[in-house]
């Protein structure tokens, strides 16, 4: 049995009698194998669509948090979107974890240089909680 030219299985027929399977039985077996291949193809496509749907849902669920983290980093580090994303990506790679799976308040540590920061006359931000606290821990290491 094959799907798109790739073999995924075989249909084996056995009989205790010699020459028990004639042309009619072979034709029925071939027809059954074609139908089984078609059913397998539909099942594989459905499984792939289900997996893609789950991946897209996960991406949508984590996007808001990542966008918030980027905004906080951009404000704290006075950096561009791309620079903030590089900081998050670096932290994710060095922690060997997907940013979207980090619980709020967990520590983000990433080696590397921080973007250039302009002198500021504004007072420091008050202590943060939740995602902002997580980003504060990350940005302290980039200062």
Automatic annotation (TrEMBL):
Give the source's domain of life in one word: Bacteria
Q: Does the keyword Amino-acid biosynthesis apply?
A: no
From the Swiss-Prot or TrEMBL record, what is one GO molecular function term? RNA binding
Keywords, ordered alphabetically: Transcription, Transcription regulation
Query: What is the protein name given in its UniProt record?
Result: ANTAR domain-containing protein
Q: Domain named ANTAR: which ranges? A: 46-107
- Pfam families assigned to the protein according to its UniProt record, in alphabetical order: ANTAR (PF03861)
């Amino acid at each position: 049995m094959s799907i798109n030219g790739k073999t995924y299985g075989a249909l084996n027929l056995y009989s205790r009698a010699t020459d028990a399977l004639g042309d009619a039985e072979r034709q029925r077996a071939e027809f059954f194998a074609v139908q089984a291949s078609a059913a397998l193809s539909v099942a594989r496509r459905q499984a792939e669509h289900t997996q893609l749907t789950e991946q897209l849902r996960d991406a949508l669920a984590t996007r808001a948090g990542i966008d918030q983290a980027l905004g906080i980093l951009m404000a704290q580090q006075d950096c561009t979107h791309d620079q903030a994303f590089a900081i998050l990506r670096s932290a994710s790679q060095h922690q060997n974890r997907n940013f979207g799976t980090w619980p709020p308040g967990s520590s983000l540590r990433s080696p590397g240089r921080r973007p250039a920061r302009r002198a500021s006359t504004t007072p420091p931000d008050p202590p943060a909680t939740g995602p902002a606290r997580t980003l504060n821990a990350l940005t302290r290491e980039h200062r």
